[in-house]
Amino acid sequence: MSAVTVAFEKAAADGRAAVIGYLPAGFPTVDGAIEAALAMAHAGVDIMEIGLPYSDPLMDGPVIQEAVHRALTGGVRVSDVLRTVEALAGAGVPALVMTYWNPVDRYGVQAFAADLACAGGSGLITPDLTPEEAGPWLAAASEHDLDAVFLAAVSSTQQRIARVAAACSGFVYAASLMGVTGVRDAVSREAEGLVGRIRTATTLPVAVGLGVRDGAQAAWVGSFANGVIVGSAFVRRLLDARDQQAGVAAVTDLAAELAAGVRSPAARDGASP
């Protein structure tokens, strides 16, 4: 049983959704990202996604693009991503790598899987890899006991959702809207319907990403999903901070707000923010 599965089961036993946070490795620095991610986990984030910075981030909005650009300018490497994962895993925090496929392909699929497992990583989220093209990765993930997480979109047909869900382990990532990452004034109303459609195809947990920014939105998403994924809102806090200490304090506050949100009465009654 993977650390991700254990985290979802623990959250379910608590009667709530899991909180999943995202930060790119190397932003604002490698050590700074590790410090911020550990602070988020301590404040209530159950699972961390660590982004592997890439020069052509097709799905990322301007906030994450800026952070990734700074990480790349700072010279971040795949070894730094693995070091970040290792630090989180060593502290008992389930850590997945969120990455476009090209860096993994260039590194070598088997080598990446082996090194990620050695670092204590839980698996990969691959937004641009389709199940049809994922054979080498699925084989490597199985060999090294890593989760393979794929995305289902609101535009996906039911047949497509079934194919995506069948390829997943750990959880299914429900992309709640079409477009790039970023906070929204309201999470897409289509998110709840997408979660329901995915659940007809799998018993895996379903986590909703793209758009969640605060505790009220987390409460609403947590009323119908097994997990709430928050990325841009955390990255924005670090971008706006005057220094590392202020940034850590800001992401800690947001993590605590999200954790409170998924535990609130609104998360049980489904009240829309």
What does this protein look like?
- This protein has helices at 3-13, 30-43, 62-73, 78-90, 101-107, 109-118, 135-143, 158-167, 190-199, 215-222, 232-240, 244-262, 265-269, and strands at residues 18-24, 47-51, 95-98, 123-125, 147-149, 151-153, 172-175, 206-209, 227-230.
- α2 (30-43) packs parallel to α4 (78-90), α10 packs parallel to α12 and α11 packs antiparallel against α12 (244-262).
- Helix content is 50%, strand content 14%.
- The model is unreliable at 178-186 (pLDDT under 50).
- The protein is α/β, with parallel strands linked by helices and 273 residues long.
- It has a 9-stranded parallel β-sheet with strand order 5-4-3-2-1-9-8-7-6.
- The protein is globular.
- The chain has one domain (3-269): TIM Barrel.
- The longest helix has 19 residues, at 244-262.
Short summary of the structure?
By secondary structure, this protein is α/β, with parallel strands linked by helices.
List the helices and strands and how they pair.
Elements: H1 3-13, E1 18-24, H2 30-43, E2 47-51, H3 62-73, H4 78-90, E3 95-98, H5 101-107, H6 109-118, E4 123-125, H7 135-143, E5 147-149, E6 151-153, H8 158-167, E7 172-175, H9 190-199, E8 206-209, H10 215-222, E9 227-230, H11 232-240, H12 244-262, H13 265-269
Parallel strand pairs: 1-2, 1-9, 2-3, 3-4, 4-5, 6-7, 7-8, 8-9
Helix pairs in contact: 2-4, 2-12, 6-7, 10-12, 11-12
